[in-house]
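= Paired protein data =
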Amino acid sequence: MLTPHPNALPRVLIISPAAAEANNGNWHTAWRWSQMLRPAFDVSIAQTWNGEPFDVMLALHARRSADSIARWAQANFHVTGAPYKAPGLGVVLTGTDLYRDIETDTAAQASLRYASQLVVLQECGAQALPVELRPKTRVIFQSTAAQALCPNPLTRSGGDGGAFARRKITPNPDASGPHPQRTR
């Protein structure tokens, strides 16, 4: 973690297992999120974390980014005394994570435990997670015209998950390129 100069922007690293040349969903998500976070943050995109200091690491794909996630958690061990809930570590779960990898892949399962925040891209995605991980899960809608809500998608004792952030990100037709804007 950094202790930045008072005038410096917080540094965010987005880990995308795919490079720009792949031109796939992971890369497009990383690029869109980097554009949303600027100019409030100094944002970089990389395929792996090389140990360079950042304030926040957002890792796309629990299994395919597992090495970077584990290294970040170990590097921040001194902050919490345990690699679990590593400060500044967000893991964005893909469909492959939710519907295959987290059930059988131990590295993907460890990524879920290491994260201080989990993100799913559809409201029903949280239902695929173990109940004990749902309180640290947020839903961020990437692009949708209409929303069909799942019944009690993020149920936890004493509530229906209403405190969870629910954001929809839609393309901004007034901007050049696929720059998203946040809407409710």
The mean pLDDT is 77. The domain at 11-183 is CATH 3.40.50 (Rossmann fold). The chain is about 25% helix and 25% strand. Residues 3 and 55 are 8 Å apart (CA to CA).
